[in-house]
Specification:
Helices cover 41% and strands 20% of the residues. It is an alpha+beta fold.
Length: 270
């Protein structure tokens, strides 16, 4: 007859607890795997978007007539275009706190009046380094006079950086009438009302090509966040694997080890 203490130690585990832990583990694994796959699908969507952007950039440039005839220029984003017109240099804007190759500076934007039309498009002309001794001292930027030809990519309006507040003078005074050309952000709708220019507000032009006119044009690629999605997917799959490992250890391996140890202790007693 087995002694009472040994029978108590060898009592079988409760099936209800085992079933509850199993269901919780299955639910957790299913959820984390589903979230990981969703992150991978988001990454695949971003990769497809990047491929579409690259394909648009490889298309032949639109000429001015084709650009003006576009019903929805947003559908032609990232496509090259070649325009002729006149720089409106008094309305040039310098967007502050923009970097190129890790160096702080300004993005230089100038409205461009299209030849033979009543339209003006904002051109992101390039980047110029900040004067570190006097941030209000702007670098020399050459603006060719007369009718010129500009080649660039059709892009969305300039991106915005986070700002705590907008200085009243810069927000209300028209460019060239006492307001500083240095700004943190530029809203094309507000700028159109401010300058009274017939400015396009749906798209802008990002000038491309070698450095010229005192400007660099190594524009950063759009931040699509592919690494973020892959990182999140790795975390979710890692959590799923951890749950499986813990379940196998505590629900299967550990009980078997305890049973063997108890059997060995019982054998040693007799």
């Amino acid at each position: 007859m087995t002694p009472e203490p040994l029978r108590a130690r060898a009592a079988p585990r409760r099936p209800g607890r085992f079933l509850l832990v199993t269901l919780a583990a299955l639910l957790t694994v299913a959820t984390t795997v589903s979230l990981g796959r969703w992150q991978l699908s988001r990454a695949a969507q971003k990769e497809a978007l990047q491929a579409e952007i690259d394909a648009q950039k490889q298309k032949p440039p639109l000429d001015q007539a084709e650009f003006l005839a576009l019903e929805s220029p947003v559908n032609a984003l990232h496509r090259p275009v070649r325009l002729r017109g006149l720089w409106l240099s008094p309305q040039t804007v310098y967007l502050d706190n923009r970097q190129m190759h890790g160096v702080p500076g300004f993005y230089v934007l100038t409205p461009f009046a299209l030849e033979g039309s009543d339209q003006t498009v904002m051109v992101q002309r390039g980047w110029v380094q900040r004067n570190f001794n006097d941030r209000t001292q702007l670098g020399a930027v050459e603006t060719p006079p007369g009718i010129v030809e500009v080649t660039g990519l059709i892009e969305p309006p300039p991106g915005h950086l986070f700002e705590l507040g907008k200085p009243a003078a810069a927000a209300s005074a028209p460019a060239g009438e006492g307001s500083s050309p240095i700004r943190q952000n530029l809203d094309l709708e507000a700028f159109r009302a401010e300058t009274k220019l017939p400015l396009r507000t749906d798209v802008s032009l990002q000038q491309v090509g070698a450095a010229s006119e005192g400007l660099q044009r190594d524009w950063p690629a759009p931040a699509l966040g592919l690494e973020k999605h892959y990182g999140y997917a790795f975390q979710w799959f890692g959590l799923s694997a951890l749950v499986v490992i813990l379940y196998v250890w505590f629900q299967l391996i550990a009980p078997i080890r305890r049973s063997r140890r108890r059997a060995r202790d019982a054998t040693d007693r007799f």
